[in-house]
Amino acid sequence: MTKRSPFRYFKTRPEIIRLAVMMYVRFPLSLRNVEDLLHERGIEISHETVRYWWNRFGLIFAAEIRRNRVNRMRSYSNWQWHLDEVFVKINGETHYLWRAVDHEGEVLESYVTKRRDRKAALKFLRKSMKRYGQPESIVTDKLRSYGAAMRVVGNGSRQETGRWLNNRAENSHLPFRRRERAMLRFRQMRCLQKFAAVHSSVHNHFNQERALYSRDNFKFNRAAALSEWRQLCSA
DNA sequence: GTAGCGCGTCGGCAAGCGTA
DNA sequence: TACGCTTGCCGACGCGCTAC
Fold first, then answer.
1. d(CA A131, CA A153)
2. A53 beta carbon < 7 A from strand C?
3. What does DSSP assign to residue A186?
4. Which residues form the DDE domain (predicted)?
5. What is the mean pLDDT of chain A?
6. Given strand A93-102, what is the order of strands in its sheet?
7. Do A85 and A179 lie in a common domain?
8. Are residues A115 and A173 in the same domain?
9. A37 CA, C7 C1': separation in Å?
């Protein structure tokens, strides 16, 4: 069975679509910023087209990035997970974005809920464990919903809590917060869920932790990530 | 200090156009 | 006819300015 290209029917070249989606998701740019930057390169499209592409291809690209990483045997570590949640306002209503991060700072899972209770924590935990399996230990803040949910799934003994232990998860919110600020706000819960999922995949893909490597290594990894991005959905 | 206002920018929607 | 894409507009919100 031959796989049909998701770019079929599109008038614009796939590399331009990939570029626009990468600009919008990876950097704190608005739809209109992307429109203007592409205009500078002689590409005439409207901000609505950028939104249309990102809606159409965001999840497809994110899924392919995840698949590629698994295929390259970059197994997601189950040694230690860090869980944390942040407030996100949608039309004046508080929602919660839950995140699971592994010990290397790689975002494993993002999930949006309206509440912060045991039920929400349980749903998030089950979703993460379904995809990545059971971790050896889970670091959380002192929100009691985590403990209650972990007792339900039978790994209550693996929980570690501490004021500073969870900085890794807290730090993972920073790029998201920067992005949220640029967008000014999210309008819908499903939009936030979608953006969080795609943003974490793209952030994982391009995040080279430049401080930990030599300049040469960093440049090599960055070029490899970009080259891989340019191949997305090209098969 | 703060309340009110106007402006600019944002994402999002609906309708319609152009093209294969 | 189906689909990609544009246009025009909307409501929400942040920010700066002004008056009190």
1. 15
2. yes
3. B
4. 78-208
5. 76
6. A107-113, A93-102, A80-90, A137-140, A159-161
7. yes
8. yes
9. 20
Q: What is the pLDDT of residues A217-231, one digit of tens each?
A: 778 888 888 888 888
Find the domain containing A128 and state its range: 80-206
Q: Indicate the angle between helix axes A47-71 and A189-206, nearest 10 degrees.
A: 50
Residues of chain A whose pLDDT is less than 50? 1-2, 73
Mark whether A16 and A69 lie in a shared domain. Answer: yes
CA A180 from chain centre, in angstroms, equals 13
Q: What are phi and psi of A197, to 5 degrees?
A: -65, -45
**Protein residue minimizing CA–C1' distance to B11:** A187
Collapsing DSSP to helix, strand or coil, A111 comes out as strand
A182: in domain: yes
Model confidence pLDDT, tens digit, residues A10-64: 777 788 888 888 888 887 777 777 887 887 777 777 787 888 888 778 878 888 8
